[in-house]
Amino acid sequence: MATDPAEDEAVLGWKAWSGRAREFLRNLFDLEFRQLLTPRMLPTLFVLAIVASALWVLAYIGQGFGDSLREGLLRLLLIGPLAFLCMVTLARVALELCLAIFRLAVHASRMAGHTEDIAGGLPRIQFWKSGKRRGGEDEF
Asked: Could you read off the pLDDT tens digit of each residue along the chain, which spans 140 residues?
């Protein structure tokens, strides 16, 4: 008996989604922070920011129409779209800043591992010398 390829894809898609959800929950409640979860959540957070911005703008426009027709049209045609674009842009900038900080931390930790290897083969240079002179007096 042959199986339906579309049905097989649906089962595999469900198993993949289920596995990703389990991995997400395992990483979410990892108290030792072995895996960074935030960089993988950024696309979802951005979608949530877009949805929240759209809902806020719709409520703002609805409130404008509740006040007067002129106020509602002004908010619908001018203020609402500009506010939406500003909020989405600010959310994007904030999330990109967050991602840049995480990438910087990863690169800094990689560099820290290499500096000890490099410094191990270099001679030690003494920058601080004692303030005592030959005459026994301290030099300040």
From this structure: 556 666 667 667 777 888 888 888 888 888 888 888 888 899 999 999 999 999 999 999 999 999 999 999 999 999 999 999 999 999 999 999 999 999 998 888 788 777 666 666 666 677 776 655 555 555 55
Nearest to 58 by CA among 45, 46, 76: 76
**How far is it, in rounded angstroms, from Cα 17 to Cα 34?**
22
d(CA 43, CA 19) in angstroms, rounded, equals 19
Query: How far is it, in rounded angstroms, from Cα 3 to Cα 16?
Result: 19
What single-letter amino acid sits at 81? Answer: P
3-state secondary structure of 14: helix
Instruction: Supply 33's token pair.
Output: 């922070």
